[in-house]
Amino acid sequence: MKNCICAEQVNEEIIAAFDGHRVSVIAYGATGTGKTYSINHVMEKSIREIDSLVKKVLLFDDAVSISFCLSTLSEFRHRDDSIR
40 is in which domain, residue-wise? Predict the structure, then answer.
């Protein structure tokens, strides 16, 4: 299943975010191909993974401060809105 593959690959991006990097995950393609479904699945998996990593970090240092922001943006363009 493509969603599972995508969600597993995002784990590396989560680790990079913990190392202080800014991370973006982008889904693109034709209308109706499952981009929104896939990104929502990835977001849910990412939240669970981040929660797990935060709990592990807090076991070693409960004074650490961790801040994450997860957001989504959907853009839809009709065929007749093409750039001229």
Answer: 2-81
At residue 1, the pLDDT reads 46
Q: Spell out the residues 6+ positions from residue 72 whose beta carbon is closer than 8 angstroms to its own.
A: 39, 40, 43
Q: What is the 3-state secondary structure (H, E, C) of the chain?
A: CHHHHHHHHHHHHHHHHHCCCCCCCCCCCCCCCCHHHHHHHHHHHHHHHHHHHHHHHHHHCCCCCCCCCCCCCCCCCCHHHCCC
Q: Is 70:32 a contact under the CB 8 Å cutoff?
A: no
**Termini Cα distance of the chain:** 38
Taking only the tens place, the pLDDT of each residue in 33-56 is 888 888 888 888 888 888 888 888
Domain tally, the chain: 1
Task: Choose among 81, 82, 83, 51: nearest CA to 68.
Answer: 51
